[in-house]
Amino acid sequence: MGEVAKDEKKLVEGNVNILDTKYVKPKTPIGRKECQLVTFDLPYLAFYYNQKLLIYKGGHDFDDIVDKLKDGLASVLEEFHQLAGKLDKDEDGVFKVVYDDHMDGVEVVTAAADGLHVSDLTAEEGYSRFKELLPYNGVLNLEGLQRPLLALQLTKLKDGVAMGCAFNHAVLDGTSTWHFMSSWAAICSGATSSVSVPPFLERTKARNTRVKLDLSQPSDAPEHANSAVNPTLRGKVFKFSESAIDQIKSKVNAGSPAKPFSTFQSLSAHVWQAVTRARELGPTDYTVFTVFADCRKRVEPPMPESYFGNLIQAIFTVTGAGLILGNPVEFGAGLIQSAIESHNAEAINKRNEEWESKPVIFQYKDAGVNCVAVGSSPRFQVYGVDFGWGSPESVRSGLNNRFDGMVYLYPGKSGGRSIDVEISLEPTTMEKLEKDKDFLMEA
């Protein structure tokens, strides 16, 4: 199964019992593979590992499930071998991802939380309870020089299974993450015996500039783990039904704009205005909207959807809070639409050239003042990740990379055009947002 044993037994607070840690690598030897990280990847080195938590109901034979997941993982890694590798630097200080058959592979922790029910983890409020179910809390992507680029924790619940994932964000974005997850699930469920759409691994086709960075492995100082999450923040999922989404979109487009606003633009403007209102900003206070936009179809030449790596860029638009609050919601939608549409191949290239001439390694919270920053996408078919025992009951983001104003969008489990909006905010702001009937689309 491409698996190396490393027994480890310990009790974690909250009665999550870590049973063991093993490593899984491609089922058949593939030799040594190297791939240079490019300008789209490098800014994320100082972010934390990107965490996702998938909660499944049922699955009573936990040992059988674990064996099936590991076996499928060994198969899918034959194509997605970069996730079984490590970060490295060449003699010039250019970062790359390297895999060879002597590396450990993907870290897989198995655990048991016999007193924890699926329903305990699917509530809309909070995320602190996820901590013990997720690997690599507070681990920087730069630590991929020493650690696996993918870590998994499979936890047996009273009535289900929790799958905690930590992906090194310097190696892949959301599109690549869910391409991998859906490919892995398809193999485990028996839908296919191999990866139906192989990842496109030639990153230098999108950008071929060698950027030298003088970055070294961070120390294992304990402050790393404490800085990943702001404990004063509150996180909550607001579930917008298909009907509510249609109402939001109709309201934003009521003025018959020259180009109709998309669902994403409409919902983003709705959230931006509501959060700005809840923050009680002054009219001259700046507020920033940030979206991490997929550039696969924007670059020249366009890259395939299967491009594996980061092919996203942060797009910023800034205005006064008074303008957001004093105008109809379509004002904000217009700013968002303009910013997204102007981010074409020329703009992307200019941004890359500016960064390459003076590289800046951002921190995860550098999204702007009074910001609303949207990551993930309702286009990602997260509820299609079925390993053979049904769709997830819930899909959530982990604790890493959260800051005041971070928003994750996921499709609603009910399907159709429903969307879940996961938001992290200061507690007083969240309290006001929870009572905002205009935001909640309540009469």
Please give a structural write-up.
One of its GO terms (molecular function) is acyltransferase activity. This is BAHD acyltransferase. InterPro entries: CAT-like_dom_sf, Sec_Metabolite_Acyltrans. Keywords: Acyltransferase, Transferase. By secondary structure, the protein is α+β, with helices and mostly antiparallel strands. The protein has 2 domains: 17-205, Chloramphenicol Acetyltransferase; 234-434, Chloramphenicol acetyltransferase-like domain (Chloramphenicol Acetyltransferase), CATH 3.30.559. Helix content is 25%, strand content 25%. The chain has 11 helices and 16 strands. The protein has helices at residues 62-76, 118-121, 174-189, 223-227, 242-252, 263-279, 321-326, 330-341, 345-357, 427-434, 437-440, and strands at 3-12, 16-24, 33-36, 50-57, 86-89, 95-99, 106-113, 150-157, 160-167, 234-240, 286-294, 312-320, 372-375, 394-397, 406-411, 419-425. A 7-stranded mixed sheet has the order 1-2-7-8-9-4-14, covered by helices on one side. A 6-stranded mixed sheet has the order 10-16-15-13-11-12. A 3-stranded antiparallel sheet has the order 3-6-5, with no helix packed on it. Strand 5 (86-89) and strand 6 (95-99) form a beta hairpin.
Strand arrangement in the largest pleated sheet: 1-2-7-8-9-4-14
- Tell me which CATH architecture of the largest domain applies here: 2-Layer Sandwich
Structural class: alpha+beta
Radius of gyration over C-alpha positions, nearest whole angstrom: 21 Å
CATH class category of the largest domain: Alpha Beta
**Strand percentage:** 15-25%
Total strands: the figure is: 16
* Tally of helical segments: 11
